Structure formats: C-alpha cells, structure tokens
Amino acid sequence: MPTYKLLFIWVEGDDDERFFNKILVPKFLEKYSGVKIIKYAAMRKKKVDNFIKSMYSPKKFDFNTLKQLMGYGRLTEKKEAIHKV
User: Fold this and answer.
1) CA gap 17, 20 in Å, rounded
2) How big is the CA angle at 26 (ends 17 and 68), to the nearest 5 degrees?
3) pLDDT tens-digit profile of 22-55?
4) Fewer Cβ atoms within 10 Å of its own Cβ: the N or the C terminal residue of the chain?
C-alpha cells in the first residue's frame, strides 16, 4: 500500500500562493499525495508556532520554508537574513 505523503508550503501572501499553485504544486504532486499551502502572514504568531511544533514532534510531514530576499542588497546581507530564520 503506498504511503500517504503530505507537503506543507508556508507562504506570505496571495501572490506567493498563486505562484506556488501555478508553477510548483503540480511538480510536487508527482512526489506527494497532497500539497497544502498555508498563508502564515495573516495568522496569529501563537497559531503558527503551534502548527510548526505539531509538524516536528514526531515529524509527520515534510515542509519547506522560503524567505523573500527583496530589500536586501548585498549577497552577505541575504545570507545573514536566511540564517536568522
């Protein structure tokens, strides 16, 4: 019996959601049984924290985090911003 695999993608807003739904979700569905996009910017911090904790213990789902790097000039600034996530 195939294993059910769900991927969560956390995005900031509507533009990000449209991009993922149109471009990346079809590719992810080749590997995952389902893909759930979550717009975290409109969520309360406590809800986001609890959601992330539930995914880590025990690790039930795959998830990725992406950070927009607009507004960062030099490459070193972008790298520093990524490491703060």
Assistant:
1) 5
2) 35
3) 988 999 999 889 998 888 888 888 888 887 777 6
4) N
Average pLDDT in the 8-34 region?
88
Is residue 63 within 8 Å of 55, Cβ to Cβ? yes
> 3-state secondary structure string, the chain?
CCCCCEEEEEECCHHHHHHHHHHHHHHHCCCCCEEEEEECCCCCHHHHHHHHHHHHCCECCEEECCCCCCCCCCHHHHHHHHHCC
Per-residue tokens: 10: 């956390």
The structure tokens 């790097």 sit at 69
How far, in Å, CA of 23 to CA of 75, rounded? 26
